[in-house]
Each structure stands twice: as structure tokens, then as C-alpha cells.
Amino acid sequence: MDQDMVLQARVKLLGANRRVVRGVEGLWIYRLLTQAEPEVYGSKLAYVLVEASALPLVRELPGQRLALLDEAVAVATALSAANPYRAKVLARALAARRELDGRQAT
Questions:
Q1: For residue range 81-104, what is the model confidence (pLDDT) as tens digits?
Q2: 3 state SS for 30-44
Q3: In the chain, N or C terminus with fewer CB closer than 10 Å?
């Protein structure tokens, strides 16, 4: 793992001055930091992935939306059962996945 990229992601996270960084920047930051510290950043990555899957442009691309939601489910599932955010982000990701499955069935 490139430690310079990890440091850059941490600086961007600190500079954002927000609880959760959203959008493309948030995806980049949390994907990178989850590789370094999955238990710390995995729940935020799953949260941002579900949020990104609901963006207007992505809603019109079922394949892309499915990929984001599958990644969110995988990240949330990989969190330790002791992680206090695991159940919440996993439930949110699975609910969004079921909603997408329901829309594709109609």
C-alpha cells in the first residue's frame, strides 16, 4: 500500500471538516483508508457507497448501482461483529440492494 496515498487521503479527510465526506472524493478517501484500517473506515465506506448508489445519474445505470451496492454489502459484511456500526450499515446496504432487486423485477 502506498503510504503517501494514505497520508494524502487522511489530509483530505481532516481538511474536509465534515463527519462523513460524500461523493467521489469520499469514495476515494474511504476506499483507500479502508484498505489500511477496515474497522475504522469500512462503515463510512459502506455508508457512502449506498449514498452514491442513489445519486440521480447512477439511478439510471442499474449495473453501476448494483456494483456500488454489492461493494457496500461486502464491506459491511467484512466488518467485525464487534464493530458498533456493522449492523446498521449492513442493514442499510441490504435494504438498498433489495429495493434495486424489486425495481429490476418490475
A1: 999 999 999 999 999 999 988 876
A2: HHHHHHHCHHHHHHH
A3: C
